[in-house]
Design brief:
Elements: E1 6-12, E2 18-24, H1 31-37, E3 59-62, H2 73-81, E4 89-91, E5 104-108
Parallel strand pairs: 1-5
Antiparallel strand pairs: 1-2, 3-4, 3-5
The chain binds FE2/S2 (inorganic) cluster (FES).
């Protein structure tokens, strides 16, 4: 049974495997930290800058039409320099897990 404070996320890893996981909304976690805690990407390949919007290792493609928090200037600047950027690219570390994100579908961008 899942806790009511958890939401469900669908995350496709870099090998194309889909994972449906539960993430807590009450622990101030961001999407990058959730991916790390479930070890959906090898240690050292995601979250390199520690969530400062300075490395783009947490880039992901948002596939569902959820309303996401607006990009900060830092996030926009980093994505303008990163590789493999698509229209739906976001930095996972800049997306806080909140109840509105229940059912979110993302795919991890390739490692740079
Ligand atoms: S962890 Fe470095 S930009 Fe997100």
């Amino acid at each position: 049974m899942s806790d009511s404070l958890d939401i469900t996320l669908h995350i496709t890893d870099r090998d194309g495997l889909k994972h449906t996981i539960e993430a807590p909304t009450d622990m101030a976690m961001n999407l990058m930290e959730v991916v790390r805690s479930y070890e959906l990407a090898p240690e050292g390949t995601i979250g390199v800058c520690g969530g400062m919007a300075m490395c783009a290792s947490c880039q992901c493609y948002v596939q569902s039409d959820h309303e996401l928090p607006e990009m900060t200037d830092d996030e926009e600047a980093m994505l303008s320099e990163a590789f493999n950027v698509e229209d739906n690219s976001r930095l996972g570390c800049q997306i806080q897990i909140s109840p509105e994100l229940d059912g979110l579908e993302v795919e991890l961008a390739p490692e740079e």
